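Sharing a chain and its predicted structure for anyone who wants a worked example. Both blocks are below, sequence first, C-alpha cells second.
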Amino acid sequence: MGGVANAALLFSIIAYALIKLYPRHPKIMVSVVRYFLVVIVVFVAVIIGLSFTSIGGKFLGALAPLARSAIVQSVAEHSPSTLQQSMYNVSITIPFVIYTILLSVMSLSLPAILISLGSLAATYFASSEIWLFMLLGLFWVPAAAYGFVKLTELALNRRALIGISIAALLGVILAISLVVNIQPALSMSIVPQQIVSTVTPPIPTPDWLDALQWLSYNTPPNATVLSWWDYGYWIAVIGNRTSLADNSTVNSTQIALIGNFFMSNPYDYTGILEKLNELHDPQYILVFEPYSILPVNLTNYGLGSVCILIPEYPAGGDFAKSYWMARIAGYSNNYISNTFISLAQVGSSTIYVPFANNTFYAAYNVTLYSLMFNLEVVDSSYAVWSTCTINGMPAYWIFEGAPTIMPGTNGTAFKLTYIGFPGYTGPVTPWYYLLQPPPWAQLVYVSRPYGWVIIYKINYSTLEALARNQTLAH
C-alpha cells in the first residue's frame, strides 16, 4: 500500500462521487469542483513551501514521501510501511472497509462518505510513515465496523438459510480476526523491554542499565553527554544527565553536527576541538557497539587459539548507524562506501567492516570507529576477559590483520605482514592501528557483562595542547 497508490485511490473516489452528483445538482457541483481544485493547488503549494523551510522533517515526509531528509529516513518509525506490514496490521478487515467505501459511493450517505474519506486519507499517511498507523486506527476501525454491520443487516434481510449462512460466515471471519490479532499481542508480551534487548535478534543484557547507572553515580550532575540521538532519552531519564540530542529528532542541525563529529578524523585536533566547541563542549562521549566473541583454534596457521570479535553481530550498534551519521552529515553514498564502510565475507555470510586500503584505515582515521575498535576497550570487556584472556587467548577483531612472518620474494628472506583470518575475505586493518583511542579521549567505563556500551571523558587540556602544536607545525 504505497502512499502514491493510496493518494490515487483517494482522489478517484472523490472524483467519482463528484461525477455522480453533477447531473442532479449541476450549479452546486460547479462551485464544489472549483473549491476542490483550489484545495488541491493549496495543498501542493504548502508541500513545496514546507520543503524550503525548517518545518519539514517527518511531517513533510508524511505529506510527500519523496521529500524525506536523511534524518527522517534514518528513523525506523518514519520509514514507509511495506505491503506486508500493512496487510498484517489491517488483516481481514479490508473487505468490510471496501464495502463501506462502496456504500459511500452508491448511497452518497454523509456518514459513510466521511468515514471512507478519513480511512483513505489515514491509509495514505500510514503507508507514508509507519508510526502513523495509530492515526489509521481512528478511521479504519469505524469504517470496518460500519461495513460489518451493514453486511450483517444485508444477510439478515435475505431468506433464512442464506441469511444464516452469511451471518455464520461473518462470525467465523470475526473469530479468525480476533485470533490473528491476539496471537501477535501474546508474542509481544514476552519480549523484553527495549533497553535490555536493544539489538537484533533481541539478546537480554543489562549492559545499558549498568552503563547508565555508572553515568548517574560517577559523573558531575551538570555533565553533558555526546552520543547518537537514539540514546538521548535513556541518558536523560535513567542516567540523569544532559544529552546533546534525543529521540524527538527535532533539532536536525545538532544531529548533523554530532554525525559530522563522529565521522571526522580524530587526529585533526584543531577540527575536533572546533566541532566540540560547536556542540557546547560536552564532557563525555558514549558509544554503543555490540559484537560476538568466537573462540577458534588457528594452530595450523601458527596463531594458536584466539578469540575473533565480530562487530554488529547481533546488530543495532553505532557502527551500523554510522551510515546514517555520514548521510546526515552530508556525505554521499559513494563517498561512504569508499571511505567509511566496506562489505566483507565470513564464510558464506556478508558483514560490514571499516574501510581499509594501503593508505587509509577507517578504524583508525574515523573518530567513532577509533573509539569502539581499540585494544583498551577490548581489554576492559568482562566478556572478553572471561572468555579469552583468562584462557590465554588473544582477542582480535575479524577485520584486524594478524602479524605473520611470510617468505620474501627471493625465497630466502622473510618479512612481517598482516593477513586476514581464515574464512575472512575483506579489508584488513593492521593491529597496531587499533592499540588505543585518540589521546584526547580517556576511557572511563565499559559496561558489563558484554562491554557493548563504552564511555569516554574528553580531556580538553590535552586536546587544546595538541591542537595548538598542530597549528604551529603548519
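Comments welcome. The mean pLDDT is 82.
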